[in-house]
């Protein structure tokens, strides 16, 4: 009796660079976690895509270039929910020892991105990795003033204190950036709004490119067609909308391949124009590591 899917690992080559999607699982949330859209309309859009509810995938991405290995985000971590926390397993399925990862690239510092970098005892999951994070992101989550703007002590604990605790084993090997190349063939692209230092990573080699766009969308069935829809966890909703619209226009115009932490696995896609809006075109599963797009 088969009781589980095959490992959530999918490779895509970008020139000389191999990008591997690692599926961490999924989280289900109510449509009330979105702003800027009525619950009934959000439910209708989800139903039109054969989604009975808001199901948000969680992914991380491995980047291999020569003998260098980077991991972009690390999922929620193990033991939080039964449907999520599989990055470590799928990293092993991909044949990569955590000790071989030399670089951790963080799109931003929400739990479903930093949860897998260390365990609850504070032991680093990647003992030889340097952690790279945008300067504005560190400034925000290290700010007591920002923390105290949250009235709920439980939210302060979950959003700020736990973030600081999980980063602790990397503090002496952390590098902050604002933009530019931070790993061979990988350039940091600031995408603020969801959080102050939210960042995408443009992978480019051999005339090909792929934008790992982080959390530009959480609910693709809704936010691709309705980019004005925001998430309650966005720190600057207006800026998040502006950034999403800018990036959707850019990748549709330039026909740039994308990968997303909350696109449904295997999480590689393109964005096409659809009238005055956009639609997501997920990449077809293929045995060809170069994909189907020249």
From TrEMBL:
<dbReference type="Pfam" id="PF00753">
    <property type="entry name" value="Lactamase_B"/>
</dbReference>
<dbReference type="GO" id="GO:0016787">
    <property type="term" value="F:hydrolase activity"/>
</dbReference>
<dbReference type="InterPro" id="IPR001279">
    <property type="entry name" value="Metallo-B-lactamas"/>
</dbReference>
<protein>
    <submittedName>
        <fullName>Glyoxylase, beta-lactamase superfamily II</fullName>
    </submittedName>
</protein>
<keyword id="KW-0479">Metal-binding</keyword>
<keyword id="KW-0862">Zinc</keyword>
<feature type="domain" description="Metallo-beta-lactamase">
    <location>
        <begin position="57"/>
        <end position="262"/>
    </location>
</feature>
<keyword id="KW-0378">Hydrolase</keyword>
<dbReference type="InterPro" id="IPR051013">
    <property type="entry name" value="MBL_superfamily_lactonases"/>
</dbReference>
<comment type="similarity">
    <text>Belongs to the metallo-beta-lactamase superfamily.</text>
</comment>
<dbReference type="GO" id="GO:0046872">
    <property type="term" value="F:metal ion binding"/>
</dbReference>
<dbReference type="InterPro" id="IPR036866">
    <property type="entry name" value="RibonucZ/Hydroxyglut_hydro"/>
</dbReference>
